[in-house]
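Thread: quick sanity check before group meeting

JM: Hey all, I'm pulling together slides for Thursday and realized we never actually wrote out the predicted structure for the chain we discussed last week. Dropping the sequence here so it's in one place. If anyone has concerns about the input, flag it before I start.
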Amino acid sequence: MSRIPQTARAKTPTPTPLKSRAVPSPVPARARTKSATGRSTPSKSAVKDDSPPAVPTLSVKEAIALKRAEAKKAQERALNASLNDLSSLEDAIPSISGAVVEEEDALGRWSVRETIERGRSSGVVNLTARSLPCIPSALFEIHLGITPDPLKSVPNEPKLPPSDTAPARHGGKRDNPVWFEARDLTTLKVWSNDIAEIQHEISMFGSLKVLDLRKNQITSLPKTFGDLTRLTTLDLSHNSLTSLPSNIFTFPELSVLNISHNHFTSLPCNAPFVSSSGKKQNSSSGGFFGPVIARSSIPLPKLVSLDASHNKIAAEAIDPEIPTALVKINLSFNPLGNSAAFMKNLSRLPNLQELRMEQADIGDESFLEDINSSSKPSFPRLRILDLGETRVTTDTIKAAVQNFQPQREISLDLTTENPPEGVILVLVGKKVVREAWEIEAERKAKARAAKFAQEEGIEWGNSPRRPVNKSSGSSSGVVEKEAWEIEAEQGLLTEGGKRRAKAQAAAAAAGTSGSTSASTAKRPVSKAEIVKEAWEIEAEQGLLTEGGRRRARAAALAAEAKEKEKAALSTSSPAPSLANSQYYTRATNALALPASTPPSKAISHGRAFSFNPSSSAFTGSPSPNDFAVPLPSAPLAEIAAQPFALTLRVLTLNNRRADRSFTLPASYGSALLPNLEELDLEGCNFADNVSVARIHSSPEGSSPNRSSEPLVPLLASLFPSLRILNLSYNTLTSACLTTDTLSALILEAPHRKGLKQLILRGNKLTELDGFQGLAEMFKGNRDVPGWKLDELDLRDNDIGRLPAELGMLPLDVFLVDGNA
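JM (edit): ok, ran it. Output follows.
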């Protein structure tokens, strides 16, 4: 709220008009209020999000200007040093008087005065990297009509050259914008300058919302600084501040506060609300005749991001009443010390998601105290806890996290992506950033090692890298061996050694080892026992010829089929066929149903083909379980009834064409498979619409209700966690891929995670109007909330033209070869 009276505004000096130049304005395009055609530029759509607003990154021009300004400062310092050496010569240093002539900017930016004058129309002034000793007095004179008091640090402020005049639109000259074009100053950026002191008249910019003062030499702020109550973003980083005006903590709209890289020793958030006697007092501003400035009654009620890293703050010097709306807190590189009480105060924040304390000089004593002392849950939304390079140990922090979030999963792997929902990323020790595929590869390797250990009679211990041998009887006090050490002792490092071990175990199970019992068949082979070569075992079993090996394989398959039939008949309640290990992999939560395409005529006769699914359709040896798999291409009703439905992550339904339809339960919730992340429907011959059969579970024998529904919207509604969708080699057309349909499938929403990979290879797409509509959402260098897609595959279609707008899509992989 501005304090300027109307009479002061009426006497505002009018600067000369600007000369028209074909040079881009330093004001960002997002901050301009009018386009070239005179129409207002559409602003971003407001999206409700708990995350703090993103800090704007530097443009290429700003980065170049910053580097050049730093180089110019270094040259000036060197020149001043050389001139000081000639102080004994009177004529060595020429006297400089009068106005300073400003040099032409190398990047074509407007001069300082022109930038300030143009800010009257836009409300934005950007004076970044201008080597300014202070905020120019011209800013106050042009925008407020006042002359600020001289500063002690800059007694003789350099005068700015007058701006060029420019002809008016209808002839003649005009100075200031007309009254309906003038705007109050809302954004002021003066970072990367030589400012050491701020004028106390800064408080008169009552409409200021964004103030960027980073990378200067400021040592203190005026008391009137606390009157800028409309600020939403304040950046004071990389200065020499030791304290803040207490009224800053009463700002009602401030959402981002950055005070990193200073010399603060405390955070007195509650200071303006407590009197010297310790009693709570009402925070108000303005006298009887002065303007009333709205202040909050609690510390910073809308602050969502606080960066106080690289200071000298101790945990005891932080007030217990922390701003309750905080989402991100960064206290890295501070001597926090014992933070048990501080951590208990942080645990009450309902929206806290990121807590960073890297190299903060804290130890296990900060997490040994029970945080769950209150009835409310502690850290209810915490997702990232950074304790890198501190004295906190892994076991202590894992126990503490399990104490206040027992239902959440803990991850210690730092990746380039944010942790998924339900997972807390805890960083302890030295940080090692890994890609997501590296962690997935390690997880699969552990699963394979565990499976092999189970087959060889080795118990996989609590440590995922250290198996424990059953026969060794190792306890927690015994040194556990790695998997490769056990394999080396058992002679299993080579393929031949593995075959010999398996042959010996099979012979022992069949009774060929005489008095050796079946329980010792899986025991590792000792050095004293005679180990036969592979060719000796093969000779005894008649496997030296190709015919003998084929007969042995056929006999083994026949024996296996008979054993499975006996087991199925003897079991009163057999396990569901879809949960069989032949289809469902528990380690990866993946289900792959067999294809229903006919086998090749070179292997078996075509007339012998049954339209029942057959996982071995290409080998000619069907499995007994295959005939229990439902016929529809996507039997989702049967899959949803399985015990693994809620944890299923990968579903593969390739080449299932016997019955091109979906089966769904007659009634289901908002999502059928809530955690499904990857769906593969390649080669199912699906069209734009698919037949859907809704099965009733109550009366047996009742016919299901069938209908025809659009395929893509159906997939979007059934699988909210879908990240990868493969619809290759179907018969989809461009008509089903409208902009609304693609938005519902791809964009992240409150009930969707957002698609990252979409594969539409080998369909019947001819146009890309739907994707063109998505691309137009990025016009004007805008960000689209919820966009996660980084790979799009449109190969082998009938596309005849690629719209130029597709170049605006932020994709990492875009495949279009094989089109017209």
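AS: nice. The first strand starts at residue 124 and ends at 126. The chain has a mean pLDDT of 75.
JM: adding both to the slides.
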